Amino acid sequence: MKNIFNIAFTGLMMVLLVSCSDGRPTERSVQYMGDTDMYVPVSYETYGENPFFENKINAQLPVEGSIARGATVYDYPDSEAGYQMAKDSLTSPFKVDESVLEKGKVTYQIYCSSCHGDKGDGMGTLVKNEKFLGVPNYKDRDITQGSIYHVIMHGRNLMGSHASQLTEEERWNVVHYVELLRADLLK
């Protein structure tokens, strides 16, 4: 029994020593796929030339008119005319309930209250510290769902666009919450 163990151990050590030698060929001796890209891939530099694309560059622009996944088309231009069109005709596709208002409140507190204030009175932290002046009070403005949404999408005056930070649903939640704040201010 001891003899079988010694033979097996010796054989195992020989296999390990042979498998670790540097005498192995560096190239494959048999290729099952021939000279395809499976074994010999063609690599290109990230922004280098690539003969397979029209502009000969690897980084391609999206197809004209394509929309990012999960995004929707917003057809109101970033202009005064677009603002008026949105103000007059754009309405929320979502129904208002307590969960929408609660989500809108959370999002408003993150993105809007630092300038517009927790109550929508234009007295946010940045206004109180005189970092920004002239932030509108929702009570003094003739605003609609469409105008609020348009300003979130494109910005207006000193306010920049928040379209990249908020999803469509979050924007509409904020719109509904701003309407609630405005109604409280008008009381």
From TrEMBL:
<dbReference type="Pfam" id="PF13442">
    <property type="entry name" value="Cytochrome_CBB3"/>
</dbReference>
<dbReference type="InterPro" id="IPR036909">
    <property type="entry name" value="Cyt_c-like_dom_sf"/>
</dbReference>
<keyword id="KW-0479">Metal-binding</keyword>
<keyword id="KW-0408">Iron</keyword>
<protein>
    <submittedName>
        <fullName>Cytochrome c</fullName>
    </submittedName>
</protein>
<dbReference type="InterPro" id="IPR009056">
    <property type="entry name" value="Cyt_c-like_dom"/>
</dbReference>
<feature type="domain" description="Cytochrome c">
    <location>
        <begin position="99"/>
        <end position="182"/>
    </location>
</feature>
<keyword id="KW-0349">Heme</keyword>
